[in-house]
Write a structure and sequence with these properties.
Length: 71
Amino acid sequence: MIEQLHYLRLPKDIKDRHVMLMDATMATGAAAMMAIRVLLDHDVPEENIYLLSLIMAVSGVYVDFCCADSC
């Protein structure tokens, strides 16, 4: 399944903020990666993005960390 962006509303100064992304359960990591990509496209520095999840599947952890670090 391909994730789709249905709604986007960000503060005008988002690039100057620290952002916490929260996903209660992460299976594939696709939605989190899309959210991170949207933030990066809006000039939020990578070091200002924090991802929090209660439960992660191994595949979700691998996708998020490897894509972020260019594995």
